[in-house]
Structure formats: C-alpha cells, structure tokens
Amino acid sequence: MKIVAAKKLLKANDQLATENRAKLDAAGVLGVNLVGSPGCGKTTLLEALFARLRSATGALRPASGALRPAVIEGDIAGSIDAERIAALGVPVVQINTDGACHLDAVMIAAATDDLDYGSIDLLVIENVGNLVCTAGFDLGEHVRIAVLSVTEGDDKIVKYPAIFQGSDAVVITKVDLTPLTNFQADRVLGDVRRLNPEIPVFQVSALKGDGIAELAQWVVDQHARAQDARKS
Amino acid sequence: MKIVAAKKLLKANDQLATENRAKLDAAGVLGVNLVGSPGCGKTTLLEALFARLRSATGALRPASGALRPAVIEGDIAGSIDAERIAALGVPVVQINTDGACHLDAVMIAAATDDLDYGSIDLLVIENVGNLVCTAGFDLGEHVRIAVLSVTEGDDKIVKYPAIFQGSDAVVITKVDLTPLTNFQADRVLGDVRRLNPEIPVFQVSALKGDGIAELAQWVVDQHARAQDARKS
Predict the structure, then answer these.
(1) Residues of chain A with C-beta less than 8 angstroms from the C-beta of B177
(2) What is the pLDDT of residue A122?
(3) Residue B183 carries which DSSP code?
(4) Is the dihedral of CA A122, A127, A132, A133 positive or negative?
(5) Is B210 helix (H, G, I), strand (E, B) or coil?
(6) What is the distance between the alpha carbons of residues B24 and B142, in angstroms, rounded to a whole number?
(7) Closest CA to B220 of B79, B50, B86
(8) B9 to chain A: nearest residue by CA?
(9) From the list A2, A129, A152, which residue is nearest B131 (CB)?
(10) Residue A42, exposed/middle/buried by CB under 10 A (0-12, 13-18, 19+)?
C-alpha cells in the first residue's frame, strides 16, 4: 500500500499550486482552470471569450472590462489547440502530458516560466479533456470553470459530481444544438444547484455568441475581486 | 520512484484480465469493452444495438445473427445507465468506481460473479466516460470499441491517439448532427487509418438507426470468430 506516498504527492502538488497562485497574485493575473470532456468546446469557448474581451476596447490591452489573456494548453499529444490560440495573437504555451490524464501544479510551474506575467491580466489553463481526473488537482488557479456541452446529455452532473461540485462556475456550451437533442437545461440546473447551490451557470453558444458577454463580464469581475483581495 | 510497484499492479491487472477472458471463452461469451468520452452516446448506442440484435429473431435468444446480451456499467456515481439497460430486459450489473477514472480487471472479476454466463452470448462492459485512462487497462474483453461523437469534433484522434490505436473498432456516433457541426468524417478516417490501418469504422446515428445493422453484424461476426478460435 502506497497511500502515504500518494498523499505526499498530493501535498507536494498543493504546495506548488499555492506557490503558482502567489506568483499570479503578485502580478495581478487571474488564473482560470478550464475543465471538461474531450470535445465539449473549451477551445472554441476561449476563442469567443477572447474576442469579447478584446472588443471591449478594440485591442488586447487592459481597460475597463478588458483583460489581456494568455493560455496554457494541456493535451495528451499534439498542439492543435495551441495553434488555434496563437492564431488569435494570444500568448500560448503547449504542455504535452505524454499520456497523463490531467495537468498538475508541477507542469504549470514549468510552463509559466515561458510567460511574461507583466503583459497579461488573465491566464487560462485549458486542462486535458477529462471530466474525472482533472477534479483532484489544484493547479494554482483562482477559479475553476467546468464546461458541459448539451450534446453530452443532461445526466452528466449526477454521473460526474466531483468536477462540478469543486468548480466556481459551470458553462453549458453548444446551446444552439439544444432543439436537436433531448437535453433539458432545467435538469442540469437542478442537479448543479443540489451539489453547489451558489454556483453561477452560463448557457452559451460560442459559435452564435449567446451568453458570451455574461461569461466575459463574470471573468472580468473575478479579476477585479482577486485584485481587491490582494490589496486588502 | 514507484515504477516497480506500478508495473506490478499492471501485471496483476493483466493476469486477472486473462482469467476473465478465459471464463468468457469457456462459456462462449464475447466480451466487449466500450470506451469513449462522457456523453459520446455509449448507452444510447447499446440501446440501438440490442434492439437490432433482438429484432433478428424477435426475442433475446441465440439464433443466426442474434446474441443474448448482458452489460456491466461502470460509473463514478449513480446507476442511471444501468437503469436504462435494465429497462430493456437485459441483465446488468452496475459498478460504482467511487471516483476512479476507469474500470479494471479486478472490478470486472467481482461484477461477473453476479452474471449467469450460461444464459448470455455477449457481455458489453460500458467503461467510465474517459478517453484517456481507459486506454491502459485490459479488462479481459475480446474486442474494444472506441466511440467518438461528431459533436466532439474531428480533431480527437490526433489529440487522444492511444485509445483509438489500441481499439478493434471505432464507432462515430450522432452522425445525424453532422450538418450542424464542422465535423469532417474524412479527417477522422484518415487519422484513424494512420494509427490503425485495418480498423473498421462505423458511422452511426443510434436515434435514427443509420449504421446500426452494420455494427450489429460486426459484433455477431466477432462472436462467431471467438467461438471458432476457442474450438480450434
């Protein structure tokens, strides 16, 4: 039995996560851990979110309601998502986990060496597509956003409770496809609220634009809140 | 470093998987390990597949082209899928992994104690929704089927290669939604064939019925092939 070793590893992860968060705090950068199943639409959501954050000022520079983002992409293999983010002119670091099923704080500490915190306000860590294993690892983020697409079905909260219970917001994506599925948003909302009564739930279509403004505003508010917490 | 211990655990899993497979062989039961992301449509696929297997004779009894199925459902929590399978009159055992991200051969050995192999021809193990961690564990099945829904996107083969490389068939689900997405089947077929040149790929809509007959025939053929291998 290696339970002690596992606990030590988790403790080491949590300690490093705390250090990662302290570095973000010192630089005034909001850290977001974006989790969800493969293909739930995390990267497409970021494309829509960044377009919205940019549109507030017409440029990727800080202003009222605008945040300069950077992204860390976590994938088993390849750099498809990182290339999509780079095409937006957003700084991006690709982590290839080489089979590992989630990111951890060690990987993030290594990846952030390549980022200039002085020129960003928002660091989004797009985790490996996995609704299970990502739930257990603090990366040093301030908020974790769990993404669920309507095409995955409305039973996922009950089946994968940990990831939703421990998150700070839920984003339901691909709502433009709802009429073609048997997805019932009320069921999801009820299940989420039973696990996590105060959690905000955003219903969005990244491709059509529905709900993106509300989500962007929430991110901006979280950034302001983290700044206030740092000053006080 | 606990690499030796991890190897020992995997070896123990493989040994038990071999025993699980021998028990299936002795009873003339085909074992199928069904893997895919959360919400890719595994349970709905089984509903359509079993309806087809039943329709070949009008009853769940063995005949030319008909197989009597049973199911083991693997979930983090709950028994939603097992209830759906039970509603079909198909024997089902629910495994709750209590947080674990994949099934293993130990769980299957325990679950099969509750199944009467004498009254079934086909055991489908519906794994935990996970495109990563399920790739590494032999459960004692004869064939592994990897499921990918069009709504997950056509980049998933490149991003999660291990699960597709090690499978015996790929089923692309929800093809009725293809016109509403940017999913390009040709890209997926090309990527699959690069990893695994001989693998059959079925394009199905479980709700509309497209492609289900072909998949059912393949399962029946696999059963016959396993029977032949056992006799020779």
Answers:
(1) 151, 177, 180
(2) 96
(3) -
(4) negative
(5) coil
(6) 9
(7) B50
(8) A1
(9) A129
(10) buried
Beta strands in chain B (DSSP E): 30-36, 69-75, 92-96, 122-126, 143-149, 169-173, 201-203
Residues A123 and A140: beta-carbon distance below 8 Å = no
Tell me which chain A residue has its CA closest to the CA of residue B132.
Answer: A101
Residues of chain B predicted below pLDDT 70: 1-7, 9, 55-65
Interchain CB distance below 8 Å, B155 and A80: yes
Of B38, B152, B180, the CB nearest to A156: B38
Residue ranges in chain A whose pLDDT is less than 70: 1-7, 9, 55-65
Q: How far is CA A33 from the centre of its chain?
A: 3
Rounded Cα–Cα distance for residues B130 and A101 (Å): 9
Q: How is the beta sheet containing B92-96 ordered, strand by strand?
A: B92-96, B69-75, B122-126, B30-36, B143-149, B169-173, B201-203
CA distance A223 to chain B (A): 30
Residue of B40, B73, B76 to mutate, testing the A interface (most A Cβ within 10 Å of its Cβ): B76
- A75: chain B residues, CB-CB within 8 Å: 159
Mark yes or no for CB contact B156/A101 under 8 Å: no
Give the separation between CA B192 and CA A113, rounded to whole angstroms. 35
Look up the ipTM and state it.
0.87
Torsion region of B99: left, alpha or beta (phi above 0 gives left; psi -120 to 50 gives alpha): left
Q: Residue B30: its pLDDT value, please?
A: 97
Mean pLDDT of chain B: 91
pTM tops 0.80, yes or no:
yes
> Per the structure block, which two tokens stand in for B106?
């130990």
Whole-angstrom distance, CA of residue B72 vs CA of residue B91: 9
Minimum-distance CB partner of B160 among A5, A76, A180: A76
Residue at token pair 């974006």: A34
Select the residue from B83, B159, B175, B188 to test the A interface by mutation, using most A Cβ atoms within 10 A: B159
**Sheet holding A143-149: strands in order across?**
A92-96, A69-75, A122-126, A30-36, A143-149, A169-173, A201-203
Nearest to A115 by CA among A89, A83, A84, A91: A91
Q: How many CB pairs under 8 A join A and B?
A: 111
Of A39, A132, A151, the CB nearest to B76: A132
